[in-house]
Specification:
This protein is an alpha+beta fold. Helix content is 39%, strand content 25%.
């Protein structure tokens, strides 16, 4: 095999060894090659004795979980990237099992060649990462592990939850489908018996969680991206709106350089302002985002969003005049 092909086969092996089942199309898309090439690479794996399996139900390939490759040497960039994630970026989000991540990083670090380890230690001293404000959660590891087990084994959980929407503590039986970190907090999405539908629950508002011995069978087809659709963040409201906003020159560049939504389009004006347009499901989430820019943004459309922002701004004035 040529060097480039060896590298690709090793990458396919590494991906499949993670335990997930990959279809031929997924492998072709992931590694930028053709289906025919993927089949040739799979034959190469078989030729060197790698015990991969094909699952007819899912149409995917995976590596026998009992098979392990010997340790692979890391080059400088690979080692630095991993250590940067462990030592610097792990505080950017509330990463579950932080202590285990740190121990894993130390094991990697201790097995690096001396020169690479020395370079990484020096380089990391000049790198910092400041996390955004995050919701506090004292028992993240425990909750995350319980929910992860429930999702993996398709077990229902009994949930006691402090619901802001219901303005009270509620009890529900939940079929957990997916764990999601969004901006400042962790959430679990799943079918709630109390709501008779898929709902989102913030982990730091969970008062009590117990795994039951009852299984569910309907979570395998849950697709997070399909569920969220075109929501601004994570709460679809069931109605699409064409949003048109004008940001004044003072903030225009800072706003436009961020891809806030996958439908975003920008049009620059001669005065240095920028018009951003989106196609968004719901007005609630985006209205709060707009208000964060105060007097530096103008809502051009739709009228319903403009009225919502005006009402909120007026209420802010009244509230602060009473202070």
């Amino acid at each position: 095999m040529k060097v480039s092909r060896i590298t690709r086969v090793m990458k396919i092996l590494t991906a499949m060894q993670a335990g997930r089942k990959y279809t031929v199309n997924e492998l072709a898309d992931t590694f930028g090659t053709s289906r025919r090439t993927v089949f040739r690479d799979l034959k190469e794996l078989a030729a060197i004795g790698v015990p991969y399996r094909y699952d007819p139900a899912s149409g995917g390939y995976t590596i026998d979980p009992e098979f392990f490759l010997p340790p692979i040497d890391l080059n400088l960039q690979e080692a630095l990237a991993l250590l940067m994630l462990v030592h610097k970026a792990r505080d950017q989000i509330q990463l579950p099992f932080k202590h285990s991540a740190l121990l894993a990083g130390l094991k990697i670090e201790n097995n690096l060649p001396h020169k690479i380890r020395q370079y990484c230690n020096t380089a990391l001293k000049s790198v910092s990462a400041y996390p955004a404000a995050q919701a506090r959660l004292g028992e993240l590891d425990k909750l995350f592990a319980q929910l992860q087990k429930a999702i993996t084994k398709r077990l229902k959980v009994d949930l006691r939850y402090d619901s802001l929407f219901d303005n009270k503590v509620i009890d529900t039986e939940l079929c957990p489908y997916h764990l999601l970190y969004n901006q400042r907090a962790w959430y679990v999405l799943g079918y709630s018996d109390a709501h008779k539908g898929i709902r989102t629950f913030k982990l730091n508002r969970i008062k009590q969680l117990e795994l039951s011995d009852k299984c569910f069978i309907d979570g395998e087809k849950f697709d997070l991206h399909e569920h969220l659709g075109r929501a601004w963040s994570m709460i679809p409201e069931g109605k699409l709106y064409s949003i048109k906003l004008r940001f004044l020159p003072k903030v225009a560049h800072n706003v436009a350089e961020v891809q806030w939504h996958n439908t975003q389009q920008a049009t620059w004006n001669g005065d240095g302002s920028v018009i951003l347009e989106f196609r968004v499901d719901g007005l609630g989430e985006i209205s709060w985002w707009i208000l964060g820019y105060g007097d530096q943004v103008q809502v051009l459309a739709p009228e319903a969003l403009r009225k919502r922002v005006i009402d909120a701004a007026r209420n802010m004035i009244v509230l602060n005049e009473q202070a």
